[in-house]
Amino acid sequence: MLSVEEAIAAVLTDAEALSAESVSLNGLTGRIAAQDVIARLTQPPFAASAMDGYAVRFADMKQGAALKVMGEAPAGAPFDGSVGEGEAVRIFTGAAVPEGADHVIIQEDVTRDGETITVNASQEKPRNIRAAGIDFKEGDVLAHAGERLHEIHGAIFAAANIVKISVCRRPKVAVFSNGDELMEPGTDLKPGQIVNSNHYALSAMIAAWGGEAAYFGCASDDEESIRDYFRRGAEADVIVPVGGASVGDYDYVKSAFAKEGGEIRFEKVAVRPGKPTWCGALKGARVVGLPGNPASALVTAALFVQPLVRRLAGETWAAPFATARLAAPLAANGGREAYLRAEAKNGRIAPAPNQDSSLLFPFAAANALIRRPAHAPALEVDGEVEFVWLR
Ligand SMILES: Nc1nc2c(c(=O)[nH]1)N[C@H]1C(S)=C(S)[C@@H](COP(=O)(O)OP(=O)(O)OC[C@H]3O[C@@H](n4cnc5c(N)ncnc54)[C@H](O)[C@@H]3O)O[C@H]1N2
Ligand code: MOO
């Protein structure tokens, strides 16, 4: 059986960023830069006034001094000339500061009479001028290739006079469930039936990682039905079948996959939950098969589907591991590396009391998974554990 580390490496074999596409400034959030994004101009492009007032020479700022107003500099229309000794230019916030001025005295600090202003408050030091380029300079790298863009980047790129951004294509991820007992939400359940729930979380997680999830539906427990789902999924970059991965008489997913011509890369991982996780390739699609138990499916998605989606989406990413002290004791671990749903808060981490692999509700409060190495000893409260952030 592969270790988690070996399984991640196997899932990522030959996985590279998909081709790039050019997109406009709207809708960049969550996309991954395919190339470095370089500023096309300096921002601010000129020394600009931060206040409404008068552009002056600081050396003239003696209390009671009178200065002659030479003209006006509104935003967008620079003053044509420079500020000499004993002179001032009326200026407004955002306007280019004229040559010669090294200070803007705010209008509240002067008295104006015709074309003369009198300084009536002492000025401590030159201020109220934003130097050109204090935000960024032409040629600066505003986002690196592989960087995930967020809400602010559209505005940054716009300020840098860029209109199109090269981002990686989002991997298409075909998800399907499998099991005759699964009924859609809203159905009146017959004895033995349960609601098909996992894919709602899975699709949302895949989208958050930068993939385009498409839910294909639920195959029944027969090879023909499952083969049909694999055929339909083969157009995608990744296929994620959920359930039917174990050794039961009705677990047909891997045999259906093999009959479709799929090649298995691994069939089991030494992890809890999620031992039946498997991986393979079918035509151009990569396949990561997840166990059907909800916690097993979602933990293994975070461990194995996440790095693949992020890699194909072009992101430079490493699982965000950290350490914290336990808020509750932990029993010794068995022979499989374990990932426990937990809530990390204020430097402490609390594992959910029941880690059964069928439970969904503990995920509501969980923002992290505690990693327990195989055969890790029991730990008391305050014991240090390693964990990986879920979100
Ligand atoms: N004899 C053995 N039995 C089992 C083994 C084993 O090694 N030997 N492994 C166990 C482990 S570990 C897991 S995990 C499960 C996973 O098995 P499958 O992937 O075949 O999952 P299913 O049997 O299809 O389903 C398990 C469980 O989850 C429910 N389920 C499935 N899909 C969904 C869905 N989309 N939404 C909600 N719930 C779902 C399903 O009804 C079952 O209750 O196998 C153990 N058995
Ligand atoms: O590994 Mo299974 O995922 O424990 O329940």
Task: Give an account of the 3D structure.
With 391 residues, this protein is α/β, with parallel strands linked by helices. It folds into four domains: 4-16 and 170-313, Molybdenum Cofactor Biosythetic Enzyme, Chain A, CATH 3.40.980.10; 20-40 and 137-168, Molybdopterin biosynthesis moea protein, domain 2 (Alpha-Beta Complex); 48-130, Beta Complex (Molybdopterin biosynthesis moeA protein, domain 3), CATH 2.170.190; 321-389, MoeA, C-terminal, domain IV (Beta-clip), CATH 2.40.340.10. It has seven helices and 26 strands. The chain has helices at residues 4-11, 153-159, 198-208, 223-233, 253-259, 294-312, 362-365; strands at residues 20-23, 37-38, 48-49, 53-56, 66-73, 87-91, 103-106, 110-113, 116-119, 129-130, 141-143, 165-168, 172-178, 182-183, 194-195, 212-219, 238-242, 263-266, 271-272, 278-282, 285-289, 321-326, 337-345, 348-351, 368-372, 384-389. A six-stranded mixed beta sheet has the order 7-4-6-5-9-8, with no helix packed on it. A hairpin with a 2-residue loop joins strand 8 and strand 9. Helix 1 packs across helix 6 (294-312), helix 3 (198-208) packs parallel to helix 6 (294-312) and helix 4 crosses helix 5 (253-259). The protein starts with a helix and ends with a strand. 37% of the residues are buried. The mean pLDDT is 96. The structure holds ligand LQZAQKY5 and molybdate ion.
